[in-house]
Write a structure and sequence with these properties.
- Belongs to the LpxC family.
- One of its GO terms (molecular function) is metal ion binding.
- One of its GO terms (biological process) is lipid A biosynthetic process.
- One of its GO terms (cellular component) is membrane.
- Zn(2+) binds at residues 95, 254, 258.
- The chain is of the alpha+beta class and 301 residues long.
- The protein has one domain (18-300): lpxc deacetylase, domain 1 (Ribosomal Protein S5, domain 2), CATH 3.30.230.20.
- It is built from six helices and 20 strands.
- The strands form five sheets. Strands 11, 12, 13, 14, 15, 19 and 20 form a seven-stranded mixed sheet that branches.
- Helix 1 (94-102) packs across helix 2, helix 1 packs across helix 5 and helix 5 packs parallel to helix 6 (281-293).
- The longest helix has 14 residues, at 207-220.
- It starts with 17 loop residues before the first strand and ends with a strand.
Length: 301
């Protein structure tokens, strides 16, 4: 177990006990990892209690709102996706959600004109830079936090994910890859640690699996890895990442990054220690759902 710091401002990396939003709107654009399509995004400030809400503008002119909450999550390959009651999808939201949570932004509206958020370079660093440039402002409403009261665990074969009581959010993760052995990362989730150690890590995959998947996607019309290339992902070939790792043990750090984004769908910052082994999006969401459905396992403070 990681020692918890005696830090009066620690709330999963927050700088104050008040809710916060961005100080100014910012815009960005880029292609999606899976659809390969271009999307324009504008992130704007929001009032206390709003949470993170995606507002997708459809070609018909209608705008559909989808809250970043675990109840709206639907299963899609290799990403986190949210779905409105009418079936409208917003996919690959995990990197932005991780950056917002780690930088303690509780409320924001994310306007987009496509189905999928831009992947950029495969990391959360561009989102962090945009949030930092926009600035952060406290709101006049206290921030509620989810405090884990008892251990909750999910398993799927060798994959496992456990959360237990702690005074702030910390994660210990491991991932075994052939030719690489076991990769590990462990630490507190604070703004500084997230931006330095986790945000630069990129989505990754093996070339021998990615190339057939891309061909299958084009042949069947499915939105899968159409935007994946050497600029948007860390491509693994045998025992190396082409071009090298950006940070030590980059793949496991990216799994932690994704996990932070997926945990944010609980709707409030989580105070707990997470132990993850070979986890991915499906197991992350299984843990969030199991935790939130067990009202005795947590309390809102």
């Amino acid at each position: 177990m990681i020692a918890q710091p005696d830090d009066p401002v620690a709330r999963s990396g927050a700088a104050s006990p008040m809710q916060a939003t961005i100080a100014a709107a910012f815009a960005c654009q880029g292609r999606g990892l899976h659809t390969g399509r271009h999307t324009n995004v504008r992130v704007t400030p929001a009032e206390a209690g709003t949470g993170i809400v995606f507002r997708r503008q459809l070609r018909s002119g209608r705008t559909i709102s989808v809250p970043a909450l675990w109840q709206a999550r639907v299963s899609q390959p290799l990403c986190t996706a949210l779905q409105a009651p009418d079936g409208t999808l917003v996919r690959t939201v995990e990197h932005l959600l991780a950056a917002l949570r780690a930088l303690a932004i509780d409320n924001a509206q994310v306007e987009l004109d496509g189905e999928e958020l831009p992947i950029f370079d495969g990391s959360a660093a561009p989102w962090c830079a945009a949030i930092r440039d926009a600035g952060r402002v406290d709101l006049a409403v206290p921030c509620s936090r989810i405090r884990v009261r008892r251990t909750v665990e999910v398993r799927d074969g060798r994959r496992s994910l456990r959360i237990e009581p702690a005074t702030s959010l910390s994660i210990a993760a491991s991932l075994s890859l052939s030719h690489f052995g076991e990769l590990r990362w462990e630490g507190m989730i604070t703004p500084e640690i997230f931006e330095r150690d986790l945000a630069p890590s990129r989505s990754f995959g093996r070339l021998k699996w990615a190339l057939p998947a891309k061909l299958y996607a084009y042949a069947t019309g499915r939105p899968l890895l159409r935007g994946a290339n050497f600029s948007t992902t860390a491509a693994i070939y045998r025992d190396r990442i082409i071009g090298g790792m950006r940070v030590p043990e980059e793949p496991v750090r990216h799994r932690v990054l994704d996990l932070i984004g997926d945990l944010s769908l609980a709707g409030h910052p989580i105070l707990g220690h997470v132990t993850a082994a070979h986890t991915g999006h499906e197991l992350n969401h299984a843990l969030v759902a199991k935790l939130m459905r067990d009202s005795a396992a947590w309390e809102l403070i």
